[in-house]
Structure formats: C-alpha cells, structure tokens
Predict the 3D structure of the following.
Amino acid sequence: MTSKKIHVTELVLRDGHQCMIATRLRTEDMLPICSKLDSIGFWSLEAWGGATFDACVRFLKEDPWERLSKLRKALPNSRIQMLLRGQNLLGYRHYSDDVVRAFVQKSADNGVDVFRIFDALNDMRNLKTSIEAVQKAGKHAEGTLSYTTSPVHDIAHFVSLAQELEAFGCDSIAIKDMASLLTPQATSELVKALIVAVNLPIHLHSHATSGLASMNLLRGVENGAMVIDTCNSAFSEGASHPTTESMIAALQGTEYDTGLDIGAVQEVSAYLRDIRKKYWQYESEYTGVDTRVLVNQVPGGMISNLSNQLKEQGALDRMDEVLSEIPRVRKDLGYPPLVTPTSQIVGTQAVLNVLTGSRYKSVTNEVKNYFLGQYGKSPSEVSVEIRKLAIGDAEVITCRPADLLEPEMVKLVAESDRLAQSEEDVLTFAMFPDIAKTFLQERNAGSLKADPLLPKEAASPNAARYAPNEFKLTLHGETFHIKLTGSGHEGEEQRPFYVSVDGVAEEVIVETLSEVEVSGGKSTGNKKKATTTISGRPRPSHAGCVTTAMPGTIVAVKVKVGDKVKAGDGVLVIEAMKMENEIQAAKTGIVVAIHVNKGDTVTPDESLLEIQPDE
C-alpha cells in the first residue's frame, strides 16, 4: 500500500481557546504542557495571531511578543504557525506596506515559522505585500481561501483565487472554513479542483459548528489534502474544530495514517481539561454544535466573543435576533466572507440594528469605511440604498486600499516615544493605539493586572447586591475595583446597573427590593426619580438629548457648544464591542451642552450631549 501520510496542525494554543473561552487562555497555562506538545510530531502548532494579540493586550495584560518568544523557547522542535490578516495584520484596519513588512519580519524573528495569510474579502491585492515579506524572511507563506457560500462563491471562483496565490509564490494553499459552511460533497469538489489547478499542498481548516467538519476532513484527505487542522479534545468540537485524537484514530491503519500517538495527545488533554476549569466565566452556551450557522454563517471564532459582547450589553437574550440579522447585513454588504475583521464589522452592525430597534439607525465607522472601499473590493454588489444611507454620495475607491497610505513607521515611532522600548512595542502601538498606550504605560510602571479569573463561587445567581458607587471588593483572596457608572430609573422592578470591574464595562440586571433617596446624608425614604445618573450626567429629558445604544468609551467629540448641527450629523464617536460607532444628532439645532470628554465611559441612561432643536 502506497503511503499518503497526512500531517496534522494542532490548534489548541490559538483557535481552540479563541472559539471556546473567548481567547482568554494565559501564557502561564500554556507553557507547562509545551514540552509534551513539542514531542508529538505535529506538522505545526498554531499558537499566535488571530485574536490572541488583541486579547493579550486588552484583557490578559500580557506582552504578545513576549508570549511568542516564550513559546518559541518552549517548542524547539515544532513549527509555530500564526494567522495573519494580510494588510490588516492583527488589527482592524489596513496598514501601510512598511508596517506590514516590519510586522512580518519581527514575527519571524520572534519565532513564527508558518504564516497563514488571508484577506476577509479574498481581495488578493491585500495579500501580496505580506506574502512577499514572509518570503523575504525565509519562512513558509500559506496563501488562504476564506471559504463561504453565496451567489458569487462557486468552485471556479476559488480555483481562480488559488491560481493567483500560486503565482504570488505561496508555499501552500489553505482552505479556511471559518464559518463551518463546508459539506463533505463541497469539500470533495473543492479539494479535487484545487489539486488539478495548482501544484501546491492543500491544507484544510474546517470549524465543527455545523457538525460536519470531521466528515469534511476525511473527504478532503481522500481527495488530496495533505495537512488537516484539528484541536485537542480539551477545546475541540462545536465552535472549535474536529478532535485531534479522533482524527488520528479515524486515519490509523489506513494509507493516510498520521503516525501520531493518541496516548501522548491524551496526556496533553488531561492537563488542558483541568486548566479549562479556571476559565469558567468565559464559557458560553453558544459554543456547541449549532446548525443555524449554515444560514447565519457566524464563524466559530466569533460566536463566543459575540455572546460575551451581548452579555456585556445585558442583551444575551437577543442572540437569536442578532443571528437572524447577520445574513441580512451580509447581503447588504455584498456577501463578504465572515472572518476577522468582516465578521466583527457585520456582527457589530447586526447587534446595533437589533438593539437600537431600527436597521442602520446607527452605522459604525467600520461599515462606512467598508462601503467606501477601504477594506478592498466586495465580492458582490452592495446595497445601493444602504450605501447611500451610510456614506451619502462620497466617492468609493477602486484601487488597492494600501496604495493610498503613506509610510507609517516613522510616525508611529514618534507617537509611541517614551512608551515603546523596542520595535515590537511600536508595532503593538500600531495595532491598537489607545489600549496599547495604557498597556505600555502600565507595563513600564510595573502595574499590569490581568482581568481576574473569578472563583467558581462567584457564579452563584443569588441575591442582588447593593453598594456605594465606587469601592474595592476582596473575595477569596482576590481584590476587584468596582465602579458603578450608571443605572436605570429608580422604581423599576428589573433595573439595569452599569458597572466597571477592573476597568471592564459590564451590565447587570438587579431586581429592586427597596430604595431610598439620600439627601443631606440622611435617607428620606422617597422614591423620587433622579435627574442625574451615578456619573453626574443628566438623564435624557428632551428630544435634543443625544444618548448611546450601548455602554462604551468616548473616542471623539466632534462638535463644541454653539455649533449648528443637522439631524444625522455625527457628533460623537464611541467604541463599543471593539468597533467605533458614530453617534448622530437626532435633531437639527444648536449644541447647548456637552457632558462628556474623550476617554469617558458612558452608558445608555445618560444624556451625553444636548441640542436645542430649531423651532
């Protein structure tokens, strides 16, 4: 029997925990098991890129470059693989070519061997610079097809894209089925067509959300795929990927035998299953098998984060509405594949459409930039009506978006001066300027503190808790800084409270048992509706009050007192769910009061700005 040995990429150090616990696995919990992972003989270990860079800086307060360096030392015999978003790198916008080249080189210097490079729109123009940079660094460039289904995404379309990637000089081709849309038959047809059309190894990646991925991998192998992606059983299946041990067993004794030792993999599983218990607060009921993905197309890496975001907005019960809205938004945007950043762009807009009660009443800046062509060419025609609503008659670019960008590295070095201690720090600042500034300041001061891993006892849903508006709470040896930033009206039976827990915005619903108004230091016992919120900002009291649909942080104040504005003009920019959302004036008139500054945390119960409407 001729051997057609199949190689395996293990995903547990990146995509597995991204899908199952919102990318929260800490480096300190990865390192103890690395020697066992390193000895098994995987083709590669995916351990960096994707959302891990963002999560390290934003939530875990870890230096992502330090994580990569530590993993490199702990995995001396393994290829480390990363996921790179082409011209977006690991951020949510396009970067200039000099930043792309610097980022790729530093990633290679710190330990990345295999770069899986994709573009959310499959716009090949957005991949070329990254591929060239990987080649220059002497590393493996894996060109990627972001798989999706739509009226324009057929076999011939994907074959033509693969031929372009081969012409770029890629070392392999990855089929990235991030939304679990492949079926066994579609996998067979696509892999077979690619084997004929290109002379490169085919690497197959399929999330298990729809319940079809294991069958897809088997059919892919039978039709010529050389490498498959799997995930250790501690973080596999559902929104994640087919189980590593199961796929080894399925191929064992066949011509496709992987040669990997299931027993060795199970030793890794035992450790990781125990470690996963620490992260219970990030578990989600939306990470299991869900065949609705075949319609809504929400990818595995997005579903746990989406549920976490809705939970923060106090709107987890509206998940089904959001899942129904996502395909409608996707159609409006010309059927982009749902993968970072388009999954966030479409998903956040769908959330806004649901929470504001009106489709496109509020349009994120990212959706506006998408319609302007700043992410690349959409796969199909966009909705003319929605584009008009979002950007009016603004000119849409048709060139490669990065062609319009001036070199940025010199400017970034200057802007991050006094904070950055290395080129890696400058690149961290480039990805996420605001959160990186805070991160680097805290790191340099030695005051970094990760979001806490709560003790299991904190899961108890018992009695509501009442407290001052800002205090420190010590629970089971851990201290949390709690600040009440806003609340619903007094007297409501189910009342929302907006709180900040160690700087992270949360919303909780409290069943009000009793309330008193405090006046002059004495409890009056009255239930008088307050005219101001906990933050001191006034509550909305007239039609000219500008509010936000969800908790977030003020990124920009675009007007000043005395300015004349028209209904629909952008007056504020808020960051919520990692996306910027422009808040517009509801009335035409004069700005008479501004109650916020850049950097302020705001909530839906507050008046952020007031307009005196024209008569």
Observations:
- The first helix runs from residue 12 to 20.
- Residues 462-467, 512-529 have pLDDT under 50 and may be disordered.
